[in-house]
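Re: that backbone. Tokens:
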């Protein structure tokens, strides 16, 4: 079950999302494709954070991007430590944000249903 973050935690999550997104954009790793950081969920003790991202491309590009992000996580954590004043610098874990892809599939299904409905005639 997802936690409901307090106002302070929402601010921390958003700040971390912004900084991580900036750092990911600066990475030169060829494995990392067109990645968008969609959100961050920080644990209440600030020791870990799940970084949600979406990536354009096929399954291989998603796997390559995951590998590149996992490899870059320590560097990004270090940069976080320099840019954000927190009691702890959270350990980052990158997780694919399935909601973007799920939304695109639902949109495609709705379009197909609409197109099928337009093809029917009232007899």
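Recovered sequence:
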């Amino acid at each position: 079950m997802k936690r409901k973050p307090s106002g302070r935690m929402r601010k921390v999550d958003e700040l971390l999302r912004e900084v991580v997104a900036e750092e990911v954009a600066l990475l030169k790793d060829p494995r990392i494709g067109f990645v968008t950081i969609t959100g961050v969920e920080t644990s209440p003790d600030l020791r870990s954070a799940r970084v949600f991202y979406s990536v354009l491309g096929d399954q291989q590009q998603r796997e390559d991007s995951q590998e590149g992000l996992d490899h870059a996580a320590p560097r990004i954590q270090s940069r976080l430590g320099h840019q954000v004043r927190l009691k702890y610098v959270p350990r980052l874990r990158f997780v694919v944000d399935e909601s973007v892809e799920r939304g695109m599939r639902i949109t495609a299904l709705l379009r197909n249903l609409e197109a099928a409905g337009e093809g029917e005639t009232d007899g």
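The longest strand covers residues 35-42. The helical segments are 7-26, 59-83, 98-119.
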